[in-house]
Amino acid sequence: MQLESSPMRPGDDGIGDPYVKTDTKQFSLLLQKAAPCEKKVQFVASYSAIVEAYYSSVAELERRMICQSKKLFAMQLKSTERVRVMCEDARKRLDDHVSIHGC
Q: How many angstroms separate the CA atoms of 59 and 67, rounded?
């Protein structure tokens, strides 16, 4: 987008701003950059689901700590630890994608 030295009439650029002229090609490129990256959306959805699973596992761990035997607690602790590692891996994949792709 570029500023013009003389004001345009409202509506000349299709937006209604009397001082900004829209370059269609430049605007199209800007929209492409602003469009969400599909791969990033997938990584975020995956990370979100794993975070929810981790939250549920920690809640179950807390319940077992109070109500269950030491053996059942230990089993839940191992399960929770596995989900935590999955959560860290999902976050790393998301961060790596963003770093490489720049989205």
A: 12
| C-beta separation of 18 from 10 below 8 A | yes
Could you tell me the CA-to-CA distances from 94 to 41, 76, 99 in Å, in that order?
Answer: 9, 27, 9
Cut 0.85: pTM above it: no
Q: Tell me: the pLDDT tens digits for 5-34?
A: 444 444 444 444 444 455 667 766 665 666
- Helix H or strand E encompassing 32: helix 24-34
Q: Are 87 and 51 in contact (CB under 8 A)?
A: yes
Structural domain spans, the chain: 1-35, 36-103
Q: For the purposes of burial, counting CB atoms within 10 Å of the CB of 43, is it exposed (0-12), middle (13-18) or buried (19 or more)?
A: buried
Distance CA 48, CA 91 (A): 9
Which pair of structure tokens corresponds to residue 31? Answer: 């929209």
